[in-house]
Amino acid sequence: MFTKRKFLQLDLKQKHKKCAELLRKYFGQTSWSTEEREAYNALLSWMKLLPFSITDKKQLADRYHWHLQQASLSLKEHNLLPRLRTGDRPIGAEFLPIAIYLDGIRSAYNVGSILRTCEAMRIGKVYFSERTPYLDNEKVQRTAMGAADLVPCAKAISLDELPKPILVLDTSDQAISLHEFVFPQQFTLVLGNEEYGVSEALMQKADHILEIPLCGVKNSLNVACAFAIAASAIRSSALCES
To answer: In terms of CATH, what superfamily is 96-241?
Structure first.
């Protein structure tokens, strides 16, 4: 906590942001102590707001999002409170022996989403190109929501050192439908930059180009969304083989 004097120096939106941060800190706890309730209500009193009694997790979550709204903070996924679940498995399945190569992906949020999908589907090891935000990036960590600590990762590895064949997920006249391709047991899947896709240098090394059949006017998907579809197909293929 910080002093009343320091808190009052903040503008109104920053004050609401600090309240939200405090509630987020308490959300994952099994109980909320009297001291913690008093600390939150102290912030409210400094803002000339009435005390607020929070009795359950849903009420706390609603109050947290109210503060975010007052702070004019957009509801990005990393601002969501963690889901409280008791059904997580103590041990996941083995990761499939494949490699996922991130070729110049710029968005840390996309990287975090890709890591979440890798962990959920237990798909391979993730290799980062030099220009792709790595695990030390705060936005990657926040968007991955714990998955970054569970997925095997490595940085700045040459594509030539990774398992063959090389599969590229992109749009091309020579592409094979993702749903028609027979996945081998080992391979490397390359995911490209959000703007221009996989670099020409890596396209030249591709053994196969895969695409997701689309029905709309737009000829592309967000890279993290596209990977989630591909990951599901890869995991389904592995289950069929086993």
So the answer is: SPOUT methyltransferase, trefoil knot domain (3.40.1280.10)
